[in-house]
Amino acid sequence: MIDYSALSDKRIAVLLSGGVDSSVVVYELVSHGLRPDCFYIKIGPEEDEAWDCSSEEDLEMATAVARRYGCRLEVVDCHREYWDQVTRYTMEKVRAGFTPNPDVMCNRLIKFGAFHEKRGRQYDYIATGHYAQTEIEDVPEMSESTVGKIENRKSLNRQLVWLCTSPDPVKDQTDFLAQIYDWQLRKALFPIGHYVKDEVRRIAERERLVSARRRDSQGICFLGKINYNDYLRRYLGELPGPVIELETGRIIGQHRGHWFHTIGQRKGMGFGGGPWFVVKKDVEQNILYVSHGCDPASAYRQHFPIHDFHYLTVNPFEAPSHLSPLEITFKIRHTPEYLPATLEPTGPGSFIVHAEAPVHGVAPGQFCVVYDTHHHRCFGSGEITV
Question: Across-strand partners of 281?
Answer without folding.
Answer: 288
